[in-house]
Write a structure and sequence with these properties.
heterodimer; A: alpha/beta; 6-stranded antiparallel beta sheet; 6-stranded mixed beta sheet; 15 helices; B: Dna Topoisomerase Vi A Subunit, Chain: A, domain 2; two-stranded antiparallel ribbon; globular
Chain lengths: 389, 201
């Protein structure tokens, strides 16, 4: 059964005007007002109108809730936090997936087959993904895996940096891809021969150097803007009891990566891998001066992870001048009532949110104005407010 | 009973076609079908291939193709500047640069670029001949006209180290705005590089 459009009592325009918003023009214009999925993951075809503020998807596990949010993320950023294999997005048995939406009044469309991708804005084909992304919106994705920002390895924290920086800086993604390719080539040279061909390794170090400068500059300036927000948000979440400090630890310290690698030749000769560079970047978090990954409690770590993500949303908003789309995958169910309320209050005002949850118990206590959908085995239908409350 | 397949000669043809770059098993099969559809299609192809093997070879100096028994129109042309050398990846790049009409020196085809991940090492490229040639020509400048992707840049860095040790002036092609284009057709990255490489008027 197709989803019904929003009923007239929920006219977005009237809702907006009743609220004092510092940047209401951006709010009114920048939103994803509907989403169409075709042969995407478990969905054969699905059209969902989205609410300008909050859209809730309720359902049991493995019904397709997260896939709906993933579709929004793919549509806006052409990447998914769940997979780097584009083929996985296509429904089993289908050859091409399609996601379409209305962003800011413009029709944006992304279609992907096993080998090719087609992007279009307002029907005009977009050849370069850079052009498409420049016109698209920004996204923040929050889910239970955010705990890995504290407990997991450094690759989780680098992915956090990459996800935000690639949305803020147009040259970031190209530098990242180029850097990764150059490191792979260099590591292969270091491993390949019994006697290492240093001249070749140095040639690749030279290529890495240029990309590394871009990555370090961008990550540094991203973290410079994130740091105060993390401290502030965590301060508010813990009602002033805890002080969190986050800092960026670059994987090379000198002015030139090539020189630093040349100085560490012995080490590289022994380990046969590139000893320094942005692929070894990390973030450190301290809580009241102590290392948060070891000393913070479960709840404190959860708050710190949330703070990092909320800070990301605020920084993206500052950078773009418009709030990002927030995708919250089963985040609220795990929080106690106080943290839930605090988190809702801390999200940048006027942002559009898509939330998935397995139960609405928690939402009865909160003021969650918006549309509510039930998701069951790849079928989405709108739920009347009276049915759940 | 064995599963039915094409007769062995056809299978061999498909296997050969499949070794061509950019051709997978399906494309190779389609080409075989196209060739078999009309017997007249095979003869000209065989003829052309035989012609290539007997009448063409690569110039020992620059690496561009010449007909047997003829002199290299590039290397043996006294009108060309003998002390400036342009290094390119493929013979097709020679034609492209020639058509631009902006270069009147000598060429040197590498035959690829340094790419450890594709198992291309300096020994697979014509780098030794390049160094020998630079010495015998007493070259003053070497222009590195290889691509600007990761492998191309690495190749340029590698050659730069070798050639500068010989006391040569080494240059690289500029990057920036396409000729005659307005700014609105250029992506941010190209624009960024064009700004970095701006020049004084």
């Amino acid at each position: 059964m197709p989803a019904r459009p929003a009923n007239s009592t929920e006219n977005p325009a009237t809702r907006v005007s009743t609220r004092p918003l510092p940047f209401s023009p951006a709010f009114c214009s920048r939103m994803l007002s509907d989403l169409l999925l075709r042969d995407f993951r478990c969905f054969t075809e699905c059209r969902v109108p989205l609410h300008p503020e909050t859209t809730l998807f309720i359902g049991r596990n493995a019904q397709g809730k997260t896939s709906l949010m993933e579709a929004a993320c793919v549509l806006l950023r052409l990447q998914s936090p769940r997979t780097s294999q584009k083929g996985e997005l296509i429904r089993l048995g289908a050859t091409t997936m399609l996601v379409e939406g209305t962003l800011d009044g413009k029709k944006v469309r992304c279609a992907q087959s096993a080998t090719a991708r087609r992007l279009a804005i307002d029907g005009a084909v977009c050849g370069r993904s850079g052009d498409y992304l420049a016109q698209s919106g920004l996204v923040v994705w929050m889910d239970h895996r955010d705990m890995n920002l504290l407990r997991g390895g450094a690759e989780h924290r680098r992915r956090y940096l990459d996800f935000a920086a690639s949305q803020m800086f147009p040259d970031y993604l190209k530098a990242l891809r180029g850097y990764e390719r150059a490191v792979r080539g260099r590591n292969y040279v270091l491993k390949r021969d019994a006697v290492i061909q240093w001249r070749q390794a140095d040639a690749f170090a030279g290529v890495m150097d240029e990309f590394a400068q871009v990555l370090r500059d961008r990550r540094q300036s991203l973290m410079d803007s994130v740091r105060p927000h993390v401290a502030k948000v965590h301060h508010d979440l813990s009602t002033g009891a805890e002080a969190v400090e986050v800092s960026y630890v670059p994987g090379f310290s000198g002015a030139s990566l090539a020189e630093e690698l040349a100085a560490r030749r012995d080490e590289e000769g022994r380990n046969r891998q590139t000893a320094a560079g942005p692929h070894r970047d990390d973030l450190t978090l301290t809580l009241n001066g102590l290392d948060a990954s070891t000393y913070a409690s479960e709840g404190q770590q959860r708050s710190a992870a949330l703070a990092l993500k909320v800070a990301q949303a605020r920084v993206l908003e500052e950078a773009a001048g418009k709030p990002p789309l927030l995708l919250l995958d089963d985040v609220f169910g795990e929080l106690d009532a106080q943290r839930r309320r605090a988190l809702l209050g801390l999200l940048p005002p006027g942002t559009q949110k898509i939330i998935t949850t397995t139960t609405l118990d928690w939402a009865r206590d909160e003021v969650v104005g918006g549309m509510v959908y039930g998701v069951e085995v790849g079928v989405v239908k709108q739920i009347e407010a009276g049915e759940i409350l | 009973m064995a599963a039915l397949d094409y007769p062995p000669p056809l299978r061999r043809l498909i296997a050969q076609l499949k070794t061509l770059p950019g051709l997978g098993p399906r494309s190779a099969e389609r080409m075989m079908l196209w060739l078999m559809h009309d017997a007249g299609r095979i003869e000209p192809l065989v003829d052309a291939l035989a012609d290539v093997t007997t009448r063409v070879h690569a110039c020992d100096d620059c690496g561009f193709f010449i007909e047997n028994g003829q002199e290299c129109a590039l290397c043996r042309n006294p009108k060309r500047q003998q002390r400036i050398l342009c290094v390119v990846e493929q013979p097709s790049d020679v034609l492209r640069l020639e058509r631009s009409g902006a270069f009147h020196g000598l060429y040197h085809v590498l035959g690829g670029k340094l790419s450890p991940l594709d198992n291309v090492t300096p020994e697979d490229l014509r780098i030794e001949p390049l160094l020998a040639r630079v010495k015998s020509l007493h070259a003053e400048e070497v222009i590195l006209a290889v691509g600007s992707d990761v492998e191309g840049e690495a190749t340029a860095g590698y050659l730069n180290e070798l050639l500068r040790a010989e006391g040569l002036s080494v240059t690289r092609l500029a990057q920036g705005l396409p000729a005659g284009g307005a700014l609105d057709h250029v992506d941010e990255l190209t624009l960024y590089q064009a700004l970095q490489g701006r020049r004084k008027l």
